């Protein structure tokens, strides 16, 4: 591979909290595969124009039910000319194109289970969302775009305070408790076995994004890292080699 793969990601004001939970899946996937890459920053309102310019496929439709909707992560591979959108599709592309570089992200026969795990993990992390809205780390262009989109979807953007915050934080712990029950208690290495996979990238992406937004020295992150016998803090320590 003569040229670096390009990862299109969203910038933030904090160097320790780049990207989003979905783009971290691809950051980890590339690193697990031992593939070098460069990041090109793009604000969310500019993603559609970028995708159309480089030929990235849409990942859904807009609320009108017909207009294509474009999201990141997107990768562009100069070595093959490929442009791929959506984290699972990117993982499959990396496995197919670079099968001998690092472990397989989605080993044969695991795709359905890994995608189901992705959806279940995403659902378990839903209670964390209100804690992200008051962080102020997004650049104005992306922040205003995101607020407008959420309001259009009927989402109430409100940062919990006081007793409401405590109740919401308890929901966060309960969500991670569900994931904890799915994983082996002893001898746990990675979700699918002895090597990291796309499922691990998904789980650690949510944890990494959460730590970046809350702050690694924040009381909330230190609390989360200690839950379930310190599983989440230990997992992030193990995955630090892929950051």
UniProtKB/TrEMBL annotation:
PROSITE patterns: GST_NTER. It comes from the Eukaryota. Residues 10-102 form the GST N-terminal domain. InterPro entries: Glutathione-S-Trfase_C_sf, Glutathione_S-Trfase_N, GST_UstS-like_C, Thioredoxin-like_sf. SUPFAM superfamilies: GST C-terminal domain-like (SSF47616), Thioredoxin-like (SSF52833). Pfam families: GST_C_7, GST_N_2. This is GST N-terminal domain-containing protein.
């Amino acid at each position: 591979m003569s040229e670096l793969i390009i990862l299109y990601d969203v910038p933030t004001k904090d160097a320790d909290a780049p990207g989003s939970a979905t783009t971290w899946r691809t950051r980890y996937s590339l690193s697990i595969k031992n593939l070098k890459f460069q990041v090109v920053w793009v604000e969310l309102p500019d993603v559609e124009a970028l995708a159309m310019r480089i030929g990235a496929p849409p990942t859904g439709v807009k609320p009108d039910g017909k207009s294509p909707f474009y999201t990141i992560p997107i990768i562009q591979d100069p070595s093959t000319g490929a442009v791929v959108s959506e984290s699972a599709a990117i993982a499959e592309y990396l496995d197919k194109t670079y099968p001998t570089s690092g472990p397989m992200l989605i080993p044969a026969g695991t795709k359905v289970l890994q995608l189901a795990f992705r959806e279940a993990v995403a659902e378990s992390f839903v209670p964390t969302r209100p804690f992200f809205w008051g962080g102020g780390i997004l650049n104005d262009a992306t922040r205003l775009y995101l607020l407008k989109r959420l309001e259009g979807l009927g989402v109430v953007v409100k940062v919990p305070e006081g007793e409401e915050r405590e109740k919401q934080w308890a929901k966060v712990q309960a969500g991670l408790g569900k994931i904890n029950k799915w994983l082996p208690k002893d001898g746990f290495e990675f979700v699918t076995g002895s090597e990291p996979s796309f499922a691990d990238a998904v789980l650690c992406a949510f944890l990494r994004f959460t730590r970046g937004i809350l702050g690694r020295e924040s009381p909330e992150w230190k609390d989360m890292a200690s839950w379930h016998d310190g599983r989440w803090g230990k997992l992030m320590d193990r995955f630090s080699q892929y950051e």
